[in-house]
Write a structure and sequence with these properties.
globular, alpha/beta, 7-stranded mixed sheet, 3-stranded antiparallel sheet, about 280 residues, 10 helices, about 35% helix, Rossmann fold
Length: about 280
């Protein structure tokens, strides 16, 4: 039996190479982390969370950030949201590959959206997305075309066997917080342009400060600004904002309420990436 090839990132996270797509392999050949500018920011945020704290990752895909968080902070409670069944299977495989137990992660399959209800889910691999339909089918068709155009522009290609949109149950971030039923130190999301919608469905959690901080991968400058405006409305302090990073396709926003999460920040360079040492919290 042929042994499956394993890709190990510079930070120690391992994934099966057959989980990756060509554009990712090309990017990792240059800088061997998933998102170069976001990597050190993420590490700093995880280190700022109490040892018994709580981290929520929305859009977990094959598990890169939840796995990295567990490597850095083994006692952290980690919740991951991934609607695509194929990626949840890959995530499960990578949990075992990295020496963890499935019990170390709580994984939800419902997409997080602006409202509790039903939406359409498009399976397009790493570019999968929830699209809200209205009464006019042409509006839905237009939304899907716009979505696929955005994927092409960001370097994620439409899969040849991409599925037709299918109905799926959605929940809000407020509803997820009710399930978790404890304060969350960090919510990270990468949701292909639905960032502002998710924030709009987190009004109670944001207003009450049950979510201490956000790390958001933004898609497009207008959406980036909209997210910042929503967060500031709920009295979050924008600690870091970059709408067009050099080494990754997504923008970045870090926002916190209360004590700052980031004490020292600088733009990531290739030399900095190569020198990162990701040691678990003692």
């Amino acid at each position: 039996m042929t042994q499956r090839k394993i890709h190990q990132f510079s930070n120690g996270v391992k994934v099966y190479d057959d989980h990756l797509i060509p554009v990712q392999r090309e990017r990792y050949n240059r800088l061997n982390v998933h998102e170069a500018e976001e990597e050190q920011i993420f590490i700093d945020l995880i280190h700022a969370i109490p040892a018994e704290g709580c981290f929520v990752n929305i859009g977990a895909a094959i598990g890169y950030y939840p796995l990295l968080a567990k490597l850095l902070a083994p006692t952290l409670s980690i919740y991951a949201i991934e609607p695509l069944q194929r990626h949840r299977k890959f995530f499960d495989e990578n949990i075992i590959l990295n020496g963890f137990s499935p019990a170390d992660f709580i994984i939800y399959k419902e997409p997080i959206a602006s409202s509790d209800g039903t939406a359409m889910f498009v399976d397009n691999g790493y570019g999968s997305k929830v699209i809200f339909a209205n009464k006019q089918n042409d509006r839905l068709s237009s939304s899907i075309k716009s979505f696929l155009k955005t994927l092409l522009q960001s370097g994620i290609r439409k899969r040849e066997n991409a599925s037709k949109p299918v109905p799926t149950k959605t929940i809000t971030l407020d509803s997820l917080m009710s399930r978790i039923s404890r304060p969350v130190d960090l919510v990270q999301m990468d949701v292909q342009g639905l960032e502002a919608d998710i924030l709009q469905g987190a009004s109670h959690s944001s207003r009450t400060g049950k979510i201490r901080a956000f790390l958001i991968g933004t898609h497009g400058r207008k959406n980036h600004q909209k997210c910042a405006d929503i967060l500031e409305k709920y009295r979050y302090v924008i600690e870091f904002a970059e709408d067009d990073p050099k080494e990754q396709p997504d923008g970045i926003i870090v926002a916190s309420k209360g004590a700052p999460m980031l004490t020292q920040r600088q733009k990531v360079t290739a030399s900095a990436v190569k020198s990162w040492q990701c040691e678990p919290r003692r």
